Amino acid sequence: MDYVGLSSGETLRALSALLSSTQDDEEEEEDCGKVTPSAQLGPGQIGPPPQKHKEELSASTEKNSKDIWNEEEVAEGSPFIDFADPRPQPEYEIILKQSVGTEDVFFGLSRKDPSSMCCEALLVKIKLPDTRATDVILDVKEKFLDLRTQKHKLGLHLPHPVHAEDSRAQFFSEREELQVTLLIKRSMDFFNKQ
């Protein structure tokens, strides 16, 4: 076998030709001059120009750099949209609750952790301004909460299936707020209760 040495003149000239791209660049520029402007567009030029919304999101994320996402980016539940009913949707908040005793807090004996898998109930807080308790019509199904008043409507798909028959609702007239407590239904409830 004959090996061509690295110091041979032909090898150095071939390497020099590969590294010098001045001739290739000049040829490409001449070719680009012949192409129509629409053919020079890339994927970034397709569609409407970027909105300032991204700048606002980046400004709000700079407030706390440890946050994974912005609260405005994540919807809590998926609301049911009824286009035939013009009543507005009231403000609401979904809170996960779990029963914690001293054995959980100090000793960790019951294997509970702060995750949603260890929660026993959903608390849905619904703001209902200018509403009385007698005006509220509430219907709770296994995976859906339906609330109707004269001024508001709320159809909410629940994040977990619940025991609809064991639900409780309490209306606080001084805060104009309805609190609905829903017990979460799990397939392994009989195993988790120890």
UniProtKB/TrEMBL annotation:
- List the SUPFAM superfamilies hit by this protein, alphabetically: HSP20-like chaperones
BP-aspect Gene Ontology terms: axonemal dynein complex assembly; flagellated sperm motility
Reading the lineage from the top rank, the first entry is Eukaryota
The ranges of region (Disordered) come to 18-68
Specify the PIH1D1/2/3 CS-like domain's residue ranges.
89-184
What GO cellular component entries does it have? cytoplasm
Where is composition skewed (Basic and acidic residues) in this entry?
A: 52-68
Q: Name one GO molecular function term.
A: dynein intermediate chain binding
Matching entries from Pfam families are given as: PIH1_CS
Q: Which InterPro entries match?
A: DNAAF6, HSP20-like_chaperone, PIH1D1/2/3_CS-like
State the similarity comment.
Belongs to the PIH1 family.
Q: What is this protein called?
A: Dynein axonemal assembly factor 6
